[in-house]
């Protein structure tokens, strides 16, 4: 069991709740609503996913095992429309953008989830759940469609804090043939001409969006489970509907904490032309390192909306530069002092307490930066002792782990520098200054970079 207590804000009850395993197994189960794969992933989606990746890291850090599931919605109107526009199958579209999503996930140094289930692989699970909901009187059929009867679920509206009559006025309710009540929503949609469809007891059709998450969280997390996550734009109707279905299906409260991540807004007037269009993740990754992107996201509290602007990017760049500089100075530091002029443990405590209080990565980052400033002056004044150096290194490692940073320089810079050194060495050899040429080769060798002369050309490889 964890000795540290993490509290997270639960949207449904409006209270900060202690995160703890609901069973006697030391496991925190987390379900995250993933992408609908009809286009390239952008920074808005990854604000949510980076947040949860960092949360998973914190949970592991404080001693829990984590089972986290991120679903992929691979059938949807948007996917069907895009496929029709491009004259390809819905699978061509969903697989192309699933690949993109998974590639970005890996490149951002995100932990692999326990499962990344795709909705169309769980149609049978959905049919089983829908059947039981009909049997128990929560759902009804209407000419090949199946609807959930919202009036049968008394607690409807608790997540989005709305009464049902307000919901009808405030939102565009789903259209559907044969609905009894306006708020009722589709569990199963009768297929239209030319649309992908699956066989079911109610005729050929496809599942509604919300039932997908009920089916996949049931399959992998066996509710009740500890945390359900997603962007705040999913509170209504998606999470409200998902909760109504899952609770009715299992006969109890399915989720202990509903956790929502604030959306990312583009501060357009503050964006330069050069940066303004970098919102697609694969484009962002050409320009920014994964470390920088993660810091841009994690420097704002997850529940707040993040205003994405040049200033925000600049701020994150400065933070990253400072951390890297001090980290390098610390690793090279060898002229030890007597110590006692920096209290590393109290910085670490402050840092962790900020994280444990509703996962405040913004305040925790500020605390970490005040540690970094203090550490740099301690190093510059040669007052750091050897044990303090080791303690500071381990604190930085902890920070790196939780924020998911590598603090490594991009390999391509390395490669350019090695290329430069190889050219200088060739020039020295041409001028017969072998001593210095050999020195370059030996020093690179010590760094694990081996040079080999093949005729006129020199190649290198890492060992
Ligand atoms: Zn979902």
Strand count, sense and closure of the main sheet? 4 strands, parallel
Q: What is the CATH superfamily of the largest domain?
A: HUPs
User: Might you state the CATH topology name of the largest domain?
Assistant: Rossmann fold
Strand content: 5-15%
Number of domains: 3
| Bound heterogens, unique | zinc ion
Whole-Å distance between the termini? 40 Å
Q: Spans with pLDDT under 50 lasting ≥5 residues?
A: none
What best-fitting shape do the alpha-carbon axes yield?
A: globular
Any idea of the CATH class of the largest domain? Alpha Beta
Order of helices and strands: EEEHEHHHEEHEEHEHEEHHHEHHHHHHEE
Return the CATH architecture of the largest domain. 3-Layer(aba) Sandwich
- Approximate helicity band: 40-55%
Rg from alpha-carbon coordinates: 27 Å
Structural class: alpha/beta
Total number of beta strands: 14
Spatial sequence of strands, sheet with the most strands: 4-3-9-10
Average predicted confidence as pLDDT: 92
Q: What is the number of helices? A: 16
